[in-house]
Write a structure and sequence with these properties.
By secondary structure, the chain is mostly helical. About 60% of the residues lie in helices and about 0% in strands. The relative contact order is 0.11.
Length: about 325
């Protein structure tokens, strides 16, 4: 429903029918999607309506989402979809321990559903937000022990695992996971996912001081740049080939589809939900200070205004009107 609404809104905007497009915003309940739209100039005519739906510190949208999803989980605690959305709601509320409590029984097992995989990834984000990196590492590492032929949906989690290891400064392990995943799950992953693993390989090799190997891997990745331009740019930044990264980024930002993904990469860590230290995001924060990048970025989007950045303190759990029962 949400994906269909986003597509319909985009189509109406393209036709100049902003009023009709605004009427569909109520069908989008995910705060992350509203936030992505409010930084994208494609939706500039909807920015006032989007900002109103987000509310101060994006709290209006988070409270609305959390109230609905936690209430649904309360009526269907055995539903994997309901659990997934409830754990995400706790992340958005900044209630990381509550997210962990809700997801404590979910683990990486063969035959797990896509929704269960997503719940484990949310659990890992909660651990990372609490700076419990060893526990997040152990949790995500469980995916490596699976027979991916019996758990094909788990292959995408290994892409996230490799990136997480690189971001927290464990490049040797990140390199091993990236290479092992490409070897064992390459046939299960999309080209987009495989290129993210290639990025992790480059960045990990650079962090390990293996520059020649990193540059060789980077050349292979550049030859496939049409499959994932953000990954190529990030790998170039890791390799300190900033001028090349700038050339790729300026061209990529001219492509509406690619630009939408790039706008998210440039957002500061503090503007995100469940923020955790990220050396990769820090590369983008420095990259946007280049005049040609800032100009190309500003033509397509903007940094999320600070008034919509999530607050540092956890939000209260919103309740359904007239219902004082606990949702957790």
């Amino acid at each position: 429903r949400t994906g269909f609404a986003e597509g319909a809104i985009g189509a109406l905007i393209d036709k100049g029918e902003a009023v009709e497009a605004e009427g569909l915003l109520e069908r989008i309940d995910q705060p992350e999607m509203l936030s992505a739209m409010v930084i994208d100039r494609h939706y500039v005519k909807l920015w006032p309506a989007l900002e109103a739906r987000l509310g101060p510190a994006s709290g209006t949208s988070v409270d609305r989402f959390a109230r609905d999803k936690l209430a649904l989980y309360g009526t269907a605690p055995g539903s994997e979809v309901a659990l997934r959305d409830a754990v995400n709601a706790m992340l958005l509320l900044g209630r990381y321990q509550d997210a962990l409590d809700l997801s404590r029984d979910v683990r990486a097992i063969e035959g797990m559903s896509r929704d269960a995989v997503r719940t484990v990834l949310y659990r890992a984000r909660a651990l990372a937000a609490l700076r419990r990196n060893d526990e997040a590492d152990a949790l995500l590492g469980e995916f490596q022990r699976l027979d991916l032929r019996r758990a094909p949906t788990a292959s995408t989690a290994l892409v996230s695992y490799a990136e997480f290891l690189d971001e927290i400064g464990r490049p040797a392990k990140a390199l091993s996971v990236a290479r092992d995943t490409l070897a064992s799950a390459g046939a299960l992953l999309t080209d987009l996912g495989k290129r993210w693993l290639d990025r992790t390989e480059v960045c990990s090799l650079m962090a390990l001081g293996r520059t020649a190997e990193a540059n060789s891997a980077l050349e292979r990745l550049k030859s496939l740049s049409d499959q994932n331009q953000p990954a190529v740019i990030e790998a170039l930044l890791c390799a300190r080939r900033t001028a090349e990264a700038s050339q790729v980024a300026v061209k990529a930002l001219q492509d509406d589809e690619v630009a939408g993904d790039l706008l998210l990469q440039f957002q500061p860590t503090a503007s995100l939900w469940a923020p955790a230290p990220s050396r990769l995001r820090d590369l983008w924060t420095g990259f946007i200070t280049r005049p040609e990048i800032k100009a190309a970025f500003d033509r397509k989007g903007r940094i999320l205004p600070r008034s919509f950045w999530p607050g540092a303190a956890p939000r209260s759990i919103p309740r359904q009107p007239g219902n004082g029962a606990s949702l957790t």
